[in-house]
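Hey all, quick one. A colleague (J.T.) asked me to put the zinc ion job into the tracker so the inputs and the structure tokens live in one place instead of scattered across chat threads. No bug as far as I know, just bookkeeping. Sequence used:
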Amino acid sequence: MAILKILQYPDERLHTVAVPIPVVTAATRKLASDMAETMYSAPGVGLAATQVDVHQQIIVMDISETQDQLLVFINPEIIASSGESMCEEGCLSVPGVYEKIRRAGHVTVHALNTHGESFTLEADGLLAICIQHEMDHLKGKVFVEYLSSLKQSRLRAKLKKHRRETM
Ligand code: K1U
Ligand code: ZN
């Protein structure tokens, strides 16, 4: 296994749209396993391949306290969504920034697992939020892009200053 480098906002590569994985192979399983190790060591509760500069549709997630309930979604699709939730989100690509984002409260997601088998999962609470956040990454969207343009430009200035000071 390996710990991968996580791209940091506003890296342009975070805006790349991921392509579907045509066949689940040993290389896909190795990527899922490296992504899981990267997510656990960060630590985080989710990670999209986009964040490690791999532009394929794969997400890993584990919202359990015990870090033993890994979920892997390959080619995920939200097939139904309902309700509304306003929850504080964080992102390993935007460290130190937490903002409330409005999303669907309940989603039904269809995906492939690491054996290439299809499954459907119904989610609400943090799991539903995390699925939507990670699927946005696969579409090239970072959660801060839901904020007003004033908040986004202040955030970019703050991150630039922080990087200058820590370089
Ligand atoms: O996409 C990412 O960068 C992962 C992100 C997922 C997420 C969390 C909360 C709301 C929406 C999406 C994170 O994991 S941020 C870090 C975090 O939430 C966390 C870190 C340590 C312990 C528990 C949670
Ligand atoms: Zn994120």
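Adding what we noticed when we looked at it: The radius of gyration is 16 Å. The pocket of zinc ion (ligand 2) is lined by residues 91-93, 133, 137 (CB under 6 Å).
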